[in-house]
């Protein structure tokens, strides 16, 4: 099986190295790897954030392990050349519409949570984020208004098929867990969200065993810190899911802990930590590699049929945390590589 390694920018390469060490320890020769540049690194080397050869590798591979993209030096580039376009392009080109972002509190990290430990310890949810539509992919631009002012615009829209296919993923994810699905929208204000809610209710007819609720996104942001234990599965749009998952990560200890899977209809997937390239700590050995190591475990489970190996990695991460290893984001002083060492030792 071929794994595409796309390290990207900033801390991306640093965390990918550790995930690769863990994969080597668990899978040995069962996996082959090919690496390609992506993001700002690809723009510097080849003039485009998602070069054709990188996209081709992503298409050929059985699964993709992605670090992060984003480089402040690229902020002045035209938007279509910026590093972030690489991850958006991969998600769109490969129809990776279902982004699963599990947020679970490792009990050892109760003190690292931004919430009180007794509130944090109940966190065990999956955010199912739609990844191919919404304001991300609508018409956008800069124009001059009738009164001569500069105006920026980004059109938010979903069509019913896009909502229905992610709703099915939400219901099925809930069915495999505690049977509760909360659909998050802003239907009190947005037409996009009204359609979202209508379609989710229609799809619910196929899942009478699932307890469906609806919540406005502002309330959801509040409930996530008030009582995160109430959530089993959240299904939501691209933008709301982006924001709520960063928030959920801090409830679960750190943004450096949350993995993700971005899947198409056939479980082909791209796996990446939810965090970005963290330019503020890049090159300093401070990055927490566990989100990427846990993403590699998701890759084994969802795309490569290696559930036992995935279980081993997750257990080793828990053991490394139980042994007291903490990177700076978790209040410790262990380096990126030492955290990798700790997971390997636990394995
Ligand atoms: P970020 O997630 O990169 O960093 C936010 C904060 O969290 C920073 O203080 C950073 O040091 C910290 N952090 C992030 N990951 C960490 C880790 N593994 N260990 C310890 N600390 C960690 O978000 P940002 O600063 O808003 O964005 C930086 C760049 O990354 C931007 O160019 C942005 O567009 C990009 N980005 C890319 C992705 C992606 O590739 N999928 C995701 C988010 C942001
Ligand atoms: C993420 C990131 C991306 C997003 C950016 C870099 C395009 O924030 O993967 O969460 O907004 O989806
Ligand atoms: Mn994000």
Q: Which terms would index this structure?
A:
globular; 347 residues; 2 domains; Isopropylmalate_DH; amino-acid biosynthesis; alpha/beta; 12 helices; magnesium; 40% helix; manganese; binds nicotinamide-adenine-dinucleotide; two-stranded antiparallel sheet; ten-stranded mixed beta sheet; binds 3-isopropylmalic acid; 12 strands; Isopropylmalate Dehydrogenase; binds manganese (II) ion; NAD
Structure overview:
Catalyzes the oxidation of 3-carboxy-2-hydroxy-4-methylpentanoate (3-isopropylmalate) to 3-carboxy-4-methyl-2-oxopentanoate. The product decarboxylates to 4-methyl-2 oxopentanoate. One of its GO terms (biological process) is L-leucine biosynthetic process. InterPro entries: IsoCit/isopropylmalate_DH_CS, IsoPropMal-DH-like_dom, Isopropylmalate_DH. Keywords: Amino-acid biosynthesis, Branched-chain amino acid biosynthesis, Cytoplasm, Leucine biosynthesis, Magnesium, Manganese, Metal-binding, NAD, Oxidoreductase. Its main location: cytoplasm. 40% of the residues lie in helices and 19% in strands. It folds into two domains: 190 residues, 3-Layer(aba) Sandwich (Isopropylmalate Dehydrogenase); 140 residues, Isopropylmalate Dehydrogenase, CATH 3.40.718. The chain has a ten-stranded mixed beta sheet, with helices on both faces. Strands 6-7 form a two-stranded antiparallel sheet. Helix 1 crosses helix 10 and helix 8 runs parallel beside helix 9. The protein has 347 residues and is of the alpha/beta class. Strand 8, helix 7 and strand 9 form a beta-alpha-beta unit. The chain contains twelve helices and twelve strands. The protein is globular. The site of 3-isopropylmalic acid has 6 residues, from helix 4. Manganese (II) ion binds next to helix 9.
